[in-house]
Design a protein that fits this description.
Distance between the termini: 51 Å
Strand order of the largest sheet: 2-1-3-5-4
Oligomer: single chain
Strand content: under 5%
Number of strands: 5
Structural class: mainly alpha
Length: 760
């Protein structure tokens, strides 16, 4: 399998780095950084010529591997002459309890790795934009921007998806893409322990740091999936490890590369890095010299070069190198606070801290929530202010197996306790630990002040918890006896077991409906966001496309953003299928000309139901079939395609009337008391399998969530219509949306009746 070249190339880079660096962990991080930079540059180079294909990717990685083979041959039997400072006592030995800690870390890695291999990608963001962009890049043989309904597929930082692209193209499937997050999990444990060493921790302190990092619940839940949070945190931790290394000043070049990869992976790195870099500067207190200035300049230049292609693409589309804010994207990508003030900062800190305070007790969580709401109001802020809140009102969540909604309560409590103790006993606490904790706290405040509070926001704090775990490895042994400190590490590992086996989307528990040893792969694609009821329609639509034999597939996702499962199901049946988005009516249509894609011979219209405008738009294909709320358009045998439908520039009704209709129909969907309907109907399903009940009841929630997503991305169109500046495309899309809301209301009524009339 061609994809095997990727781990081989990584191993060769690490082996050569081992001849340069005495510490194997430094060599591991250096090899990963060089490998990551090459992956980014190779992707951009091949993309410029639309040559992202197996033969070209293999050729690029063969060149990389051959280079490091030659360097290894030249290095001969050298084992590393560069010495790093020995911060750990040479005679420090590990006891039996320490062995148990090592075993616990290894067990967590083993279980999460198995889950990553046994489950397909299935987290909602991955289904909506992470992997769809990978499929479009593979179809276009380029990472250049393309026409799409979801601007997140264009402007979000892409390095993790670049790595997924290489695996996807070289293996021909998504089977291995979960390993990117898992490998980052492993790298975080390594990097966290190395940072602890550079801060002054002994062997046991480094082990404690690794244990606290490995047992972070949010990290455990995410590490078996295909998101990018762990990847971004890994590059930040790697950069910190290089900068804190007292061995050589020229580590600034490697640190710059790692920080550049962090920026190319997760946009929140732009907020965290300044605080972290200032803390590291205060810890190391580097002396100014010509060599130091040159190394820092080289590192900064390297970080810029890594990000430059994406910066240029974003600048051209949005007017900003980072892509946001971008009004055309609507509220869905409006993450920044719309107002900044001291009360907003206090409110943000309290609400973000609350993401890590959830317990299994709903009653206790409600009391905590009430107290925090009172505290926020006393500070002069509104806990549910829409200018500082994204979607959901403020609440304290119950512990969960969902990676997006689970915080890190034990580590948060330990970090708070250590911070208070450090301020009280600041003379006896290592200065490096206090400064790093201060940097993490500053990053947390900056994030809370700049970004809207989000119920799923705990994952964004992951880099701070990883670096905080390094500080815990220094401070806790000073606060308590060694046996107590080791017991705390064991306790943190034990408390992670429910998250290790109780992942809501990928589980080893037979009682979980997403039990990976029993659930079919196709079903696991629909595990998140109440999508289970959509599986039959997707399967039948994919079969319809397969029967058509069409290799150039159009996807219309204007009304349903859950895109990737359809792509995956079609590729299982047509391995050579290529995809493109159709029916796009926004500024991204500009990129269609440069890509020069062939006209699709079949189109899958997701969530189109019986919207008349969509049927008219694709009637040129000839054959129409309905699969649940999915409409498939194919060419009938002997059919001669008609001319493409052109949106009618003459609106059917005035903009004000259309806006009123859209608002009324949206409200009609939202007013349905879904939770009450489900609670009342549950008794009728007492004799039914729990999985069937869950899937049927989830359908009501999914329909309402879908209507919210449509409402959010149409916000710019509705604003222009209200101002009298709407284009003909705006009016046409709003007509489609109005009809879609009417269809969703009808679909919601049908699903409600089916749920309520279930046989006991």
């Amino acid at each position: 399998m061609p994809a095997i070249i990727l781990p081989i190339a990584f191993a060769l880079a690490c082996l050569y780095a081992r001849t340069v660096f005495a510490d194997w962990r430094t060599a591991f991080l250096a090899g990963a950084t060089v490998w990551g930079v090459w992956l980014a540059w190779l992707t951009e180079l091949l993309s410029a010529f639309q040559r992202i294909a197996p033969v070209w990717l293999v050729g690029g990685w063969v060149c990389f591997s051959a280079t490091f083979l030659a360097l290894l041959w030249r290095a001969g039997s050298k084992t590393g002459k560069t010495l790093t400072a020995k911060l750990a006592a040479p005679d420090e030995r590990l006891g039996k309890l320490d062995g148990a800690v090592i075993g616990g870390i290894a067990f967590i890695l083993l279980v999460t790795g198995a889950l990553a291999l046994l489950s397909p990608p299935n987290t909602d963001d991955v289904m909506e934009y992470h992997l769809p962009r990978v499929v479009l890049w593979a179809s276009n043989h380029s990472v250049q921007f393309f026409p799409t309904f979801d601007f997140g597929q264009l402007i979000h930082t892409p390095w993790a998806e670049y790595a997924a692209l290489h695996l996807y193209v070289l293996s021909g499937s998504d089977r291995w893409v979960n390993l990117i997050e898992w490998a980052s999990f492993l790298g975080l444990i390594v990097g966290c322990s190395l940072v602890a060493k550079h801060l002054g921790a002994g062997v046991k302190g480094q082990l404690l740091a690794a244990a606290f990092c490995a047992s972070l619940p949010e990290l455990i839940l995410e590490s078996s999936g295909s998101n990018n949070t762990a990847v971004g945190a890994f590059w930040i931790a790697t950069g910190a490890a290089f900068l804190l290394d007292p061995g050589r000043e020229n580590r600034a070049v490697l640190a710059g590369a790692a920080m550049g990869l962090a920026l190319l992976t997760k946009g929140t790195a732009l907020i965290f890095l300044p605080a972290v870099l200032i803390a590291i500067w205060a810890i190391r207190r580097p002396r100014f010299s010509r060599h130091f200035v040159v190394s820092c300049a080289a590192g900064l230049m390297l970080a810029l070069l890594i990000n430059l292609p994406q910066f240029v693409r974003n600048q051209r589309l949005t007017g900003s190198p980072v892509g946001l804010p971008f009004p055309e994207a609507g509220n869905r990508l409006r993450f920044r606070n719309e107002v900044i003030s001291p009360s907003v900062a206090v409110s943000g800190v309290i609400r973000n801290a609350a993401l890590h305070l959830g317990t299994p007790s709903r009653k206790f969580n409600r009391k905590v929530q009430q107290g925090l709401r009172w505290l926020i109001k006393v500070s002069g802020a509104d806990p549910d202010d829409p200018r500082t809140t994204w979607r959901d009102p403020f609440q304290v969540s119950t512990m969960t197996g969902r990676e997006y909604f689970q915080g890190n309560p034990m580590q948060f409590a330990l970090l708070c306790a250590v911070s208070v103790w450090g301020l009280w006993r600041w003379r006896s606490v290592p200065r490096s630990a206090l400064l790093l904790l201060g940097g993490c706290a500053a990053g947390f405040v900056m994030f809370s002040t700049a970004m809207k509070w989000n119920l799923s926001g705990a994952r964004y704090h992951l880099p701070l918890f990883v670096l905080g775990s390094s500080a815990l490895g220094i401070a806790i042994p000073l606060m308590a006896r060694r046996a107590v400190a080791t017991s705390l590490a064991l306790m943190s590992l034990l408390t992670s077991v429910p998250f290790l086996f109780g992942n809501s989307l990928r589980s080893f528990l037979p009682s979980n409906r997403n039990f990976v040893l029993q659930s079919p792969k196709d079903a696991l694609y629909f595990a998140d966001d109440f999508q289970g009821w959509q599986q039959p329609a997707h399967l039948s639509a994919a079969e319809e496309i397969a029967r058509s034999g069409c290799g150039e597939i159009g996807i219309d996702s204007m009304l349903q953003t859950w895109v990737y499962p359809m792509m995956a199901l079609i590729r299982e049946r047509l391995p050579n299928a290529r995809f493109q988005y159709t029916g796009v009516h926004n500024p991204s249509t500009y990129y269609a000309t440069a890509l020069q894609r062939a006209k699709p011979c079949a189109i899958v219209c997701l969530g189109c139901m019986k919207v008349p405008e969509k049927r008219m738009e694709y009637e040129w294909l000839g054959t129409v079939s309905q699969h649940g709320d999915i409409t498939v358009f194919t060419r009938g045998e002997g059919h001669v395609p008609k001319a493409d439908h052109v949106a009618n520039g003459a609106p059917d009704m005035p903009a004000t009337d259309l806006l009123r209709q859209v608002q009324e129909r949206y409200d009609a969907v939202q007013r349905v008391p879904v939770n009450a309907i489900i609670a009342n109907a549950q008794g009728n399903w007492s004799a039914r399998p729990p999985r069937e009940w869950q899937i049927q009841s989830d359908s009501l929630k999914e329909i309402q969530l879908r209507s919210v997503a449509i409402w959010e991305w149409t916000e710019p169109l509705r604003r222009r219509a209200a101002e009298g500046s709407a284009t003909s495309d705006d009016h046409y899309v709003l007509q489609i949306v109005s009809e879609a809301y009417f269809e969703l209301s009808d679909l919601l009524e049908q699903r409600t009746i089916a749920l309520e009339k279930a046989d006991p």
